[in-house]
Amino acid sequence: MIFLELNKITVSPIKESSKSIYWHPPGDKSISQRATFLASLAEGTSRISDILWSEDTVNNLIALKKLGVGIEIDNNDVLVTGVGKFGYRASNNTVYLGNSATSSRIMISLLSAQKGRFKVDGNKMLRNRPMEWVVEPLKDMGAQIEWLNNYGCLPVGITGSRLDGMHHRIKVSSAQAVSALLYAALLADKKTRIYKKTKARDHTERIFKYFDLDLIDTGDYLELTPPEKILPHDIFVPGDISSAAFLIGLVAMQKSSGLELTVKKVNLNPTRTGFLEILQRMGADLTIINQGELCGEPIGEVIIRSGSELSGVKVSGDVFVQSMIDEIPILAAVAATAKGETVITDAFELANKDTNRIITTIELLNNFGIEAYPIEGGLVVTPGEFTSPGNLEVPNDHRISMVAMIIASFCNKKTEIYNWDTVRVSFPGFLEAFNLIGLASTDDDSSSLGPSIYMEMVE
């Protein structure tokens, strides 16, 4: 049971549950953001269905609206009327993107080729996220970008200019670096070729192909020929596997059998399914059925059943770790309930998330009585019994907040968690989903899904 009071949440120990649940997770955050950006550059109106309604995506929509893009809400859908490739309107106001690193990096790329002067900024957390590995290649293309406070971080000032198509070699293992340069390539004067450091999320490549853009993927590099114009397309966003991972992990952690969760119409892009593969290796009763495709993205249903005895695993390899980079905090919680230690390496990118998630994940586990410690590029988790710290203030990291609530529900007594509402960044409906499984209940309106969060923030 969960009780709410201002920014404090009280989590009580869960009760055993025996039932079958069917759940459609909220729309994928990565795809929602990329879809709205691409639709904003089209000449015409695109309908985006099943978009994620969260602070990150809403800040994205508000920013585009202030730049002259048509944004209308039709029930739960978003109608985006694009302004063409070079139609963003210069704004005297800061283009504010809240907590979203994805939106800020793509936005910097797009504004670099627009007419006028712009300033891009975010909240305190986003100001600590690295931006130089996007900005420096853009400068090589001719972008005029300046650091307004600290080198390598927001805020930045941008004066629109012509971008030269060129060859890039990505230096970081991040899909956002590739995505930012692909969006810049749309606005360049000739072909752009991008050599990736490692295989990472390919949502941008898939949605570009869905929009019939001339993108070649050889495996070694991507090559984009900029289109004369972009035509609008209707987009259906699949469910977010990263959000679903929290409930999938929660069911896997349950020692007693009888609880079954079916996650419907969820994204099964192979660059995102590492967490599911690891759970199967650990011994979880997890199956995938009804696989298909939606707007260029693989989808299907994931069935997870409680009661399996889990074993610790070793997780390594750049490509494989990238496929579950956002799920490592919940994996660490699951690992604490397994038999034998779990070792996670090659997760260097975790240091540059909303927090240094290697450190904040370890600190969270330690606070709940679990032995965990850092190693180069990762961490080691030793299984044990969760014990409540009584009260805990979690850092400003939505994924750490959700893991904290899940762990607290397995403790021996109530836990008071402060700063829990950072979940609004990516999964405002987290508490309702918890309630669906029968482990929690809440009457809190701020966690509801739907465009109400847009109306709240735009006002």
From TrEMBL:
GO terms for molecular function: 3-phosphoshikimate 1-carboxyvinyltransferase activity. Residues 25-432 form the Enolpyruvate transferase domain. GO terms for cellular component: cytoplasm. The keyword Heme does not apply. It is found in: Cytoplasm. 3-phosphoshikimate binds at K29, S30, R34, S174, Q176, D326, K353. Its EC number is 2.5.1.19. Pathway: Metabolic intermediate biosynthesis; chorismate biosynthesis; chorismate from D-erythrose 4-phosphate and phosphoenolpyruvate: step 6/7. It catalyses: 3-phosphoshikimate + phosphoenolpyruvate = 5-O-(1-carboxyvinyl)-3-phosphoshikimate + phosphate. GO terms for biological process: amino acid biosynthetic process; aromatic amino acid family biosynthetic process; chorismate biosynthetic process. Keywords: Amino-acid biosynthesis, Aromatic amino acid biosynthesis, Cytoplasm, Transferase. Its main location: cytoplasm. It holds the Pfam family EPSP_synthase. It is an enzyme of class 2 (transferase). InterPro entries: Enolpyruvate_Tfrase_dom (IPR001986), Enolpyruvate_Tfrase_sf (IPR036968), EPSP_synthase (IPR006264), EPSP_synthase_CS (IPR023193), RNA3'P_cycl/enolpyr_Trfase_a/b (IPR013792). CDD domains: EPSP_synthase. The active site is at D326 (proton acceptor). Phosphoenolpyruvate binds at K29, R129, Q176, R357, R399. It comes from the Bacteria. Belongs to the EPSP synthase family. Catalyzes the transfer of the enolpyruvyl moiety of phosphoenolpyruvate (PEP) to the 5-hydroxyl of shikimate-3-phosphate (S3P) to produce enolpyruvyl shikimate-3-phosphate and inorganic phosphate. Monomer. NCBIfam families: aroA (TIGR01356). PANTHER family: AROM/DEHYDROQUINATE SYNTHASE, PENTAFUNCTIONAL AROM POLYPEPTIDE. This is 3-phosphoshikimate 1-carboxyvinyltransferase. It comes from Lysinibacillus mangiferihumi.
